[in-house]
Design a protein that fits this description.
8 helices, oxidoreductase, about 10% strand, about 40% helix, Nitroreductase-like, Oxidoreductase, NADH Oxidase, alpha+beta, 4 strands, flavoprotein
Length: about 230
Amino acid sequence: MDVREAMRTQHACRYYRPDPVPDDVLYDAFDDARFGPQGGNRQPVRFVVVKDPAKKKALGELYIVPWTAYSTAAKQGIEAIVAEADGTAKSTRLGGMRDPMKSLLDADHFAEHFGEHPVIIVVCADIANTHPTDTELGRLSIVGGGSVYPQAQNLCLALRARGVATTFTTLLCAFEPQVKELLGIPAEWATAAHIVAGYPANGFPTRLNRLPVEELVSVDTWGQPLARAETAGV
């Protein structure tokens, strides 16, 4: 698959077929994903592939707790915005989403069946080997993730290229002690994310709703958008 197509159609899948993902498909995807960049080639990432039904069920029981709280608050927020605003104002406050309530209900389904999805992949990070450079800035440190998440995104793209859908979530990281005990993850390894993988029940999207380049990218000064170069005469 062309990498551009993979990037433009790799969505957060909410509905999965029950079919298992073969080990050789997973192996080949990890074989590609491992080349993701990280600082100093220290390779501080490991993965735990969870296929055991009992362990997946246990992860699902943990996941639904924070999700229920989040979903309840989000629904209340959406209802308030819809009641107060119309037209453009409503669209702006809802992030341009056409039907945010449907998206939330789809995510509810995903959460309610979290422990039943074909594969749950735990992304683990050796924090001591990420060497973040922003720990003294008086804000939440984020730089260390640069040695972790590129490999995780590589995995999502590698699976997409093989017809396997994914959902990337960090919600379950709040239950890191319980997850580590359940899966025997050593003390020095942190849980950085969880990736659900499986064959999509409804196929892949042909278009994802994302901000245009002009709203994402500035040149030289914040707010000066990058524009497509004129092609005439080139």
